[in-house]
Amino acid sequence: AAGTGEFEAGISKNGQTREHALLAFTLGVKQLIVGVNKMDSTEPPYSESRFEEIKKEVSSYIKKIGYNPAAVAFVPISGWHGDNMLEQSTKMPWFKGWQIERKEGKAEGKCLIEALDAILPPARPTDKALRLP
């Protein structure tokens, strides 16, 4: 969340943002989208500098875990107002869109739904033996 103090709490030593990123990587999640929510609560509202600050810090942390930040879509959103959820918001003209580079190729878009659509389905090893726990 981009609100004042909310991001700092999440990225702190025992914060939930750190915990969720580490859990995702540990559980084998290969593709990641970072939706920076509550952009309407920044000071000033829809602040580009706040988004860039959060993007920089989260990129640094996920790189330490093992993710490639170039393969992660960062999307500034406001879920409450629906900004950048299904279509590009006019309230964030500074946001030109997200781009990701991965070995399967490049992808780009302007909103969260496009980032979700860019997630590639995992390969199913149907030629291998079935394993049950």
From TrEMBL:
This is Elongation factor-1 alpha. The keyword Nucleus does not apply. Residues 13-121 form the Tr-type G domain. Pfam families: GTP_EFTU. The keyword Electron transport does not apply. Keywords: Elongation factor, GTP-binding, Nucleotide-binding, Phosphoprotein, Protein biosynthesis. GO terms for molecular function: GTP binding; GTPase activity; translation elongation factor activity. InterPro entries: P-loop_NTPase, T_Tr_GTP-bd_dom, TRAFAC_GTPase_members. It comes from the Eukaryota.
